[in-house]
Amino acid sequence: MGFDLAKWHPGPGSSRSGSARELVNDWFAQADVRLDGERPWDLQLHDERVPARWLAGGSMAFGESYMDGQWSAARLDQLFERLIRSRIAERTRPVSLL
Asked: CA–CA separation, 83 vs 41, rounded Å?
């Protein structure tokens, strides 16, 4: 499973062209979450390949990459509260990968 970028709704001034990290960063910004930010709910990336993994594998890849130690957050509860409240998952859907 992956994210359908055709249904992805970037914020003002965002561009759909760019790196996986930029796309994911814009996506998480809708939930007030930053990659490598300073707040306790921000994601700390330990592997720069992880955003591409999330785009290719969706929520399953998100969970597996956490278990693999590729990212962390000081306050997982606050991270998931923001992700759930933003309803990001409702604005994405699986895509077919060739």
From this structure: 10
